[in-house]
Design goal:
- The chain contains 17 helices and three strands.
- With about 400 residues, it is mainly alpha-helical.
- Helix 8 packs antiparallel against helix 13.
- Bound molecules: s-citryldethia Coenzyme A.
- S-citryldethia Coenzyme A binds next to helix 16.
Length: about 400
């Protein structure tokens, strides 16, 4: 016999997290990083400056930024022994499986920055994570397509370095287009942090036990992988391709509304935004810029996406449920146009979110009131009962 009964476990779990990093107003479509609107940061700032802002709480002076940028740039290489770690995976491993494993393995290669009680080691771990995650993600891509690893260069900015590590080959270098690099940098900024989403909450909970920072960020990578969360960008482009042409959109919209059908419109809806996702607005504009730059403005996938958005936004079901395109709806179209396979989309999301995860982890671990996480439970199982011998069952 089961029944709801509660008892006082003797501790208070607030159930909510205090943080000064990111603010979201889901009704107004507001997203602020340390008080600065995402639209202004995406337009005027750079990902590395946003990383500094999220980590330290203030925009850097020129000198502060130069020191930070130089520190990150000079830590982009991986321990050469990690090459063998990558080579242990099957060639057809999903990039997220490799990224999750490689980030966790950093605690085996950089154990001189795993003592979370040492402020200096915490800072070094944060800088190593932000500096090395592009190399890890690029190498996961190279490994999955059977191409040699390309090493980072110190004369390139953060986004350009990542693009070159993904697309250069020993036979010929990759000329980074400024428009593409700017779009990549903006995609990183739009994905950098997002308050207490599933993967960030995972990082905080893992970190609350004082596990090393690399293990905590690896836990965040694992949580982001799910199609309901960071995996939605990969699922969204696959959905747009399955729809294929605008005349098939009504069929898929009908399926998304049919409660007996598990199909949902990928890239639509959000737990917090019940109005538009401000990141999607910037992303749509960026998609148009990138596709125009690449001479594929009439990309059929973009046409399906724009028509799907128009139809959904006029549909009473989506209006009633307050479903709008989210950050994942357009990002896949841009990444596809740049040349990434869909399997890489969530790994790129993880690259950018590493800044947010690291900032949130640091904020949690530096809080003197910090305690180990222990979410409350409402017990719905059997009430106490006596054991029954198997002969009597
Ligand atoms: C990210 O938390 C974050 O901040 C995440 C993120 C970040 O930056 O970290 O923003 C990144 O994960 C964006 C979301 C990416 N996921 C998707 O695009 C997958 C498709 N979206 C859905 O799975 C869904 O919208 C979620 C998971 C995003 C939100 O799920 P919820 O909280 O259950 O949505 P809801 O309860 O507010 O939905 C209200 C109703 C429900 O119907 P009823 O139970 O009320 O009848 O709308 C329905 C849902 O079934 N619904 C959808 C839908 N999304 C919600 N119906 C059809 N298609 C959809 N996409």
């Amino acid at each position: 016999q089961t029944g709801h009964f509660t008892f006082d476990p003797g501790y208070t779990s607030t159930g909510s997290t205090e943080s000064a990093i990111t603010y979201i107003d889901g009704g107004k479509g507001t997203l602020l990083y340390r008080g600065y609107p995402i639209e202004q940061l995406a337009d005027k700032s750079s990902f590395l400056e946003v990383a500094y802002l999220l980590l330290k709480g203030e925009l850097p002076s020129k000198e502060e930024f130069d020191v930070f940028s130089d520190t990150v740039t000079r830590h982009t290489m991986l321990h050469q022994q990690m090459v063998k770690f990558f080579e242990g995976f099957r060639r057809d491993a999903h990039p997220m499986a490799i990224v999750c494993g490689a980030v966790g393995a950093m605690s085996a290669f950089y154990h001189d920055s795993t003592d979370i009680t040492d402020p200096e080691q915490r800072t070094i771990a944060s800088h190593r994570l932000i500096a090395k995650i592009p190399t890890i993600v690029a190498w996961a891509y190279k490994y999955s397509i059977g191409q040699p690893f390309v090493y980072p260069r110190n004369d390139l900015d953060y986004a350009s370095n990542f693009l070159r590590m993904c697309f250069a080959v020993p036979a010929e270098d990759y000329e980074v287009s400024p428009t593409i690099a700017k779009a990549m940098d903006r995609i990183f900024t739009l994905h950098a942090d997002h308050e207490q989403n599933a993967s960030t909450s995972t990082v905080r909970l893992a970190g609350s036990s004082h596990a090393n920072p690399f293990a905590c960020i690896a836990a965040g990578v694992a949580s982001l992988w799910g199609p309901a969360h960071g995996g939605a960008n990969e699922a969204c482009l696959q959905m747009l391709r399955e729809i294929g042409t605008v005349d098939r959109i009504p069929e898929f919209v009908a399926r998304a509304k049919d409660k007996s059908d598990p199909f949902r419109l990928m890239g639509f809806g959000h737990r917090v935004y019940k109005n538009f996702d401000p990141r999607a607005t910037v992303m749509q504009q960026t998609a148009k810029e990138v596709l125009a730059e690449l001479g594929v403005a009439n990309n059929p996938t973009l046409q399906v996406a724009q028509e799907l958005e128009r139809i959904a936004l006029e549909d009473e079901y989506f209006i009633e449920k307050k479903l709008y395109p989210n950050v994942d709806f357009y990002s896949g179209i841009i990444l596809d146009a740049i040349g990434f396979p869909t399997e890489m989309f969530t790994a790129i999301f993880a690259l950018a979110r590493t800044v947010g995860w690291t900032s949130q982890w640091a904020e949690m671990i530096e809080d003197p009131k910090q305690k180990i996480g222990r979410p409350r439970q409402l017990y719905t199982g059997a009430t106490s009962r006596d054991y029954v011998e198997i002969s009597k069952r």
